[in-house]
Amino acid sequence: MQVVKRRAESLYSDVFVPGETLAIRKEARQFADDVVRPIAYELNTTPEARETFPRGLFDALAKNGIYEIPYPADVGGRGLEFPTLATMTVLEELAYYSPSAASALYDGQAILCGKTLENAPQHLRNEYLPKLVRGELVGSFATSEPDASTDLSPAAMKTVATRVDDGWRVNGRKRWITNSVAADFILVLCRTGDAQTFLLADMKQDGISVGEPDLKMGNHAQLTADVIFDNAYVPESHVVGTVGGGLKAALTALTLGRMGIGAIGVAMGQAAFDYACDHMEKRKVFGQELARFQHWQFTFADHAMAIENARALYQKAAYLYDKTGRADTEAAMAKVVGSELAVELARDAIQVCGAYGFARQVKGSNQQLPLEAIYRDAKIGEIYEGANEIQRWIIARKIFGRALAG
Ligand SMILES: Cc1cc2nc3c(=O)[nH]c(=O)nc-3n(C[C@H](O)[C@H](O)[C@H](O)COP(=O)(O)OP(=O)(O)OC[C@H]3O[C@@H](n4cnc5c(N)ncnc54)[C@H](O)[C@@H]3O)c2cc1C
């Protein structure tokens, strides 16, 4: 894939970003340039199949210590002062080249699974988290079902955990489960009576099977599949959080995941912006470069402001979380603004690049082009980890209170 100038370097100031985070950005960018960029086209355009799980990239992330960044030192992590800010920064760097790999291997693995484990009972945290940091285990995080995802109320959910002498038996079907084809363990939200309980189940047991990967319009490197539970056994010690407190445990990790979707959106927007600006400076129509047309100057000036806003939002949400342990409204804002920015920027970037935006390969000149994949990959950001309507609802609750907003 062609290397283009990174416009963020000269456009924006990092005046508020801690030195620790800037060092992590440098490290993550080096990794992304060296390891992700050379395989990005393949990651972003190869249709889903069991054997396309990006194991090589997963192993490289572990080997280079990138999974250490979100965690405290006692589980093998870096013990950073601003771990959430650093984690979101890593996501942006990885997603600049492959949003789907970043989503699966970092948002899914390191944030949804890792942060759930970090907040899990001590014995689960100590047993599982160091292995996750070292890249010895792949995890899945399962809340969605064929008939329920946005609505995870006990009335809507059909995956049921039933008490047995020394633990639980789980029956049901989860859908769209990222990394399930390669997972060693699964965090699964189950209905237990009138509430939900989050359980950690071993995937390598007879009672659990995984379907074929779904074929999607984008995010090809993020393999999703159904996970079927047929009397699967979970020991009592593998309850994450409390019995009946499962939704709270899941939502804690999802708050961080949502910031991550904001950061991934910023990355896609920035990548589309950089590619399109490069094209506009070189491509001539009616005898002059596209960059000389004021229509496109103004369009991309607006996008430059939108990127700055979206990046500042996810950084502020992450910084606040590191300082206070809460950032629900800020995470919702970061998710909406980042994901919508990516869709809008990808559309305008393709428009100004014309056919060179719409195509992924030009056979006549042996070129591989990035924008069509960004356009396909951007859409899911508005849907997953809580549709943007739900994020607006979270923000509306803060404005009007639950009495009015529900
Ligand atoms: C690539 C990918 C990876 C995924 N990975 C995982 C995973 O690892 N684990 C997991 O559990 N799930 C995963 N999912 C599922 C994802 O989280 C859900 O698709 C998402 O939560 C939306 O649920 P749904 O698709 O069932 O849509 P529904 O719940 O049916 O909602 C459909 C639409 O209804 C609208 N809507 C819903 N509620 C409201 C409301 N209150 N007000 C207004 N509008 C509303 C929204 O526009 C929403 O998009 C993944 C999905 C994809 C595509």
Brief sketch in words of this structure:
The chain has 406 residues and is an alpha+beta fold.
Descriptive notes:
By secondary structure, the protein is an alpha+beta fold. The protein has 3 domains: 8-138, Orthogonal Bundle (Butyryl-Coa Dehydrogenase, subunit A, domain 1), CATH 1.10.540.10; 140-246, Beta Barrel (Butyryl-CoA Dehydrogenase, subunit A, domain 2), CATH 2.40.110.10; 247-405, Butyryl-CoA Dehydrogenase, subunit A, domain 3 (Up-down Bundle), CATH 1.20.140.10. The protein has 13 helices and 12 strands. It has helices spanning 8-11, 19-45, 55-63, 83-95, 99-118, 122-133, 246-282, 294-324, 328-353, 355-358, 371-378, 388-400, 402-405, and strands at 139-142, 160-164, 167-178, 185-192, 195-202, 208-210, 224-235, 239-240, 284-285, 288-289, 361-362, 367-368. The protein has a 4-stranded mixed sheet. It has a 4-stranded antiparallel sheet with strand order 2-3-7-6, with no helix packed on it. A two-stranded antiparallel sheet has the order 9-10. A hairpin with a 2-residue loop joins strand 4 and strand 5 (195-202). Helix 2 (19-45) runs parallel beside helix 4 and helix 4 runs antiparallel to helix 8 (294-324). The mean pLDDT is 97.
